[in-house]
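Researcher: For the record, we're logging two predictions in this thread. I'll number them. Prediction 1 follows.
Model: Prediction 1, sequence and structure:
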Amino acid sequence: MKKSLQQKISTACALLVFIIIGGMLSNNSYAQNTKQKQKPNFIFILIDDLGWTSSSQLMDGKIANSKSDYYETPQIEKLAAKGIRFSSGYAPCAVCCPTRRSIQFGQTPARQGDILFPEKYDPSKNKVTSIPQLLKSISPLYRTAHYGKWDLRADIFPEDLGYDESDGEQSAH
């Protein structure tokens, strides 16, 4: 079932709220505990097919058409005004599954392979570091969560990679 553009934008708005809240919590904690070095809070959001012109937020001040002149997304604009905008990224692959895999393990789709991925990256058989494992190696106080589409095309689940919380296997099959 395909989502309508309105549903995609609504999902994007909800996810962006988490980015800003994480940033605000980080800033408030820092102000209250200036004697302690704080670990940054962050939220990474990946949305399939969301482009610069999918919201009314200007993504690049040097490029006038890096926002929509049709869609009105005032909540995204408010969030962006209080947070950080990451507008210079690229997807490691043209399709979603290899992109999600690359983000999880910090490796290119070519290195991970397709047919061999389930065997090479099975956490019960091999030691390959994922995002939550890396964060927890920096500080065991980090809590990690994954919500939304998972679908790595392998019997590997968020909890297997060290996520503390998830909404389970959410795939497009």
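Researcher: Logged. Prediction 2.
Model: Prediction 2, sequence and structure:
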Amino acid sequence: MPDADQPHTAAALFASIAYLDSLDSATLHSVSRTAVKRTYEPDQVVFLEGESSSGLCVVENGWLKAIKTAPDGREQILNFLGPGEVFNAVAVFASDANPATVIALEPSTIWTIQRETMLRLLDDHPPLARAVIQDLANRVTHLIQLVEDLSLRSVEARLARLLLQQAQTDILPRHRWATQSEMAARLGTVPDVINRALRSLAQDGLIKVERHQIQILDKAALEARAGLET
């Protein structure tokens, strides 16, 4: 039997997301009543590249990764997805198949807003349509930066940029799943190369690598290694 509190939980989650905060309370509760909640275990596939899209996904808790996979099995991580993030927008609004595979990295809960519901909301709520356009533009920018990094920057520069982007007040928490293999797949290389790059940055006094976090010690120097100096 469905949990009677689920629509309230979903409405509260949706209201906290910038993507949907232009919707009024009544609309959010209406959407939440048709949203579908699913839970996933680590390494469980949420959907595969090429599958048809069921709707827009919102992460309630947990972490996931969006990947492309080569014929030899090698992964390229496109993005990590955490609490409060929205994904699968391209498939929903382009009426196309899922462009990437999404896999849970830890126990995760996801709400899916059906595609027909999202299209109706776009027709009825112009501010939401503007938010969708902005979000899709940001995703294009992210992919352009990813291509630039993979094509034009060294592994050490890509690593330095990633640390700067993901650090919170000069601290980058290390999730249990954030292995060097996962980091290598994010940066388009192999774990041994990532290990050498981390050691090089640490030996030069730019970062301090600890079990549960990476601390940025010299932000200006790390920005220079990333090619971000002004």
